[in-house]
Design a protein that fits this description.
Blueprint: H1 3-12, H2 15-23, E1 27-29, E2 32-33, E3 48-50, E4 53-54, E5 62-67, E6 96-97, E7 105-112, H3 115-122, E8 130-136, H4 142-150, E9 164-167, E10 174-179, H5 186-193, E11 198-206, E12 209-210, E13 220-222, H6 225-236
Parallel strand pairs: 7-11
Antiparallel strand pairs: 1-2, 1-3, 3-4, 5-7, 5-13, 6-7, 8-10, 8-11, 9-10, 11-12
Helix pairs in contact: 1-2, 3-6
The structure holds uracil (URA).
The site of uracil has 8 residues, from α5.
Length: about 240
């Protein structure tokens, strides 16, 4: 790939900022100074330095956002802010969300440019569990637990897969719901089916990825080493 693109995508700035870095003769490829942005580099094998810093090209990026309410999971929107107002788009402009949360839902959202990883989490065939905390307008009952467990007809072609519903006896309107599918408005529609309105909804977990309690709504961080290990497990099909 072109050296200027390599540097830009590695986070050194826009094409014009990179042009200046090159012009200032700060870039070495395999020990030789290079000023031409068109110079071809192999991101895997060439050693690129800017000053004393080795520039490593990362093909994939992974972020964990605590999505706040009031923003949409889209690249752009005429009406609402998007999640990319919170996690700035990278130079490659190829980030996307792994699945979607509604405008009024908050909590764990994974953002990446790794399509294979996203597929390994989102494909209906993979049955990856997603756990939500919902605040219902009424108290949960034992019948609700059973209805969720049995699966229900929410107007789609197929009934829902068994889902887990639980709550603390002390706060029976705070319900934990685990689904293994990702149908449109699924938690709200399943709740409505048992006569409950979802007043608040927060996603706590997706497979092995857990909402980081240190992140306030709107805050994000890169995946930890442990989480990067999970990525490999999902992509390798070992979970
Ligand atoms: N189910 C919903 O109803 N909304 C969400 O945002 C996620 C799951």
């Amino acid at each position: 790939m072109r050296l200027d693109r390599f540097l830009s995508e590695a986070g050194l700035g826009s094409r014009s900022q990179v042009k200046k870095i090159l012009k200032d003769n700060k870039v070495r490829v395999n020990g030789s100074f290079v000023q031409d942005g068109k110079f071809q580099v192999n991101p895997e094998s060439d050693e690129v330095f800017v000053g004393n810093d080795r520039i490593l090209y990362q093909q994939y990026e992974y972020y964990l956002l605590n999505k706040p309410k009031g923003c949409v999971c889209a690249n752009s929107d005429g009406k609402y802010p998007t999640v990319f107002d919170y996690v700035p788009m990278n130079a490659k402009k190829d980030l996307f969300t792994v699945g979607r949360l509604d405008l009024d839902t908050e909590g764990l959202l994974i953002i990446t440019n790794d399509g294979a990883f996203s597929h390994s989490i989102m494909s209906p065939k993979k049955h990856v569990d997603k756990t939500y905390l919902a605040l219902w307008d009424k108290e949960a009952t034992a019948d609700d637990v059973e209805s969720f467990q049995l699966g229900m007809d929410i107007g789609d072609e197929k009934t829902t897969k068994p889902a887990k519903l639980s709550c603390d006896e002390k706060s029976p309107r705070d319900v934990y719901i685990t689904i293994s599918e990702g149908r449109y408005h699924q938690v709200k529609r399943m709740s409505a089916k048992v006569g409950k309105e979802v007043l608040e909804l927060k996603r706590l977990q997706v497979g092995k990825f857990v909402l980081d309690g240190n992140l306030k709504p709107g805050e994000y961080r890169k995946f930890t080493k442990e989480e990067l290990g999970y990525v490999e497990q999902y992509k390798g099909g070992s979970v």
